[in-house]
Amino acid sequence: MQKVRSEWGLQGVEALRERCPVLVIVDVLSFSTCVDVAVHRHARIYPFAYGDEDAARDEAARIGARLAASRRAGGQLSLSPASLLKLNPGERLLLPSPNGSRLSLAGGRATVLAGCLRNAKAVAAKAKGLADGRDIAVIPAGERWPDGSLRPAIEDLIGAGAVIEALGLPMSPETQVAHDAFVSARAHLADVIKGCMSGRELSDRGHELDVDIALELDISHCAPMLRNGAYEDAAA
User: Fold this and answer.
1) What is the pTM of this model?
2) Domain ranges, residue 192
3) For residue 40, how far is the Cα from the chain centroid?
4) Residue 68 belongs to a domain
5) How many domains in the chain?
6) CATH code for the domain in which residue 12 is found
7) 224 and which of 62, 123, 138, 231 could share a cystine (Cβ 3.0–4.6 Å)?
8) 98-109: per-residue pLDDT in tens?
């Protein structure tokens, strides 16, 4: 019987990528939301490992893509959904990120989708079609503490739950918890996400609009799928 499974972060991807032919990576603040915004504008996002700026510049030049700047740079394309509203159709953007990109690139032979609150229903529909009756993994990315260990992030748990709710399939116990978190938070989603640690951190840095964009539930019909190194809309 087909089932939805869920585990946290990179270890979750590694645990489920051989068992589930479809992985949905959920990094609400902000990688998955950035991917959805860009793909909605008919751009392509190339995930890249975070931390080596020279390697990122070389890779961007190799594939003919623009390189996203640090969100702190301001006024430039970055890991800020608001900045990506400036993307033009057909543009390519190399997007380093410490969580969503890293998980996207660890999917192995599985098909990888980027899910968030904005595209939960569209991604769920595509995942079911791709899985063809086999198990689906929904992975809340989480954040990382300074020592590199996983910091569970409730916005990703809730975002994963939104995708799981839309899938409407039998669930593992871990998946049920994520589902129930979304159902519980849905009526006051803005208060929960804006009040959580990640939401407060972004708002305190002047990125309230990024949080608002991430909160737009099921306004996107895109299903960003990683193909040939880039996310593009598989729902089109």
Assistant:
1) 0.97
2) 4-40+100-233
3) 14
4) no
5) 1
6) 3.90.1560.10
7) 231
8) 999 999 999 999
